[in-house]
Amino acid sequence: QVHLVESGGGLVQAGGSLRLSCAASGFNGNSMGWYRQAPGKQRELVATITSSGNMNYADSVKGRFTISRDNAKNTVYLQMNSLKPEDTAVYYCKAGTVISYWGQGTQVTVSS
Nearest Cα to 30, choosing from 55, 7, 61? Predict the structure, then answer.
């Protein structure tokens, strides 16, 4: 059984930084990533990374966010810098593609 546990969300001022972590137990697949959902909006992709290190980013976060992965720990990270109020959302960790698993979400709030 796959279980994802996210941590690292919080409240930060615009221009600040946060680092999210997602520890995956029971998962040995290729793709892991981060998605986010703001109030009243659809869930959207933030960044993904494969086990070999191939990364993909949403245009809105390129140059500000960095996704990384520790395969030994089965953990994926999202370093978020230069945060903007529009980055405010619940951030979800996702593991897998065809069959996917989701974490419970962690709130990120960026104040102006």
Answer: 55
Residue 17: CB atoms within 10 A of its CB come to 12
DSSP 15-33: T--EEEEEEEES---S-EE
Distance CA 95, CA 81 (A): 23
78: tokens are 């999202």
Collect the ranges in the chain with pLDDT lower than 50.
none
58-88 pLDDT, tens digit per residue, is 999 999 999 999 999 999 999 999 999 999 9
Rounded Cα gap, residues 29 and 110, in angstroms: 32
Count CB-CB contacts under 10 A for residue 75: 17
Residues 6+ apart with CB under 8 A from 24: 2, 3, 4, 32, 74, 75, 76, 93, 95, 101
Query: What per-residue confidence (pLDDT) applies to 53?
Result: 93
The pLDDT score that the predictor gives to residue 29 is: 84
Confidence (pLDDT) at 28:
85
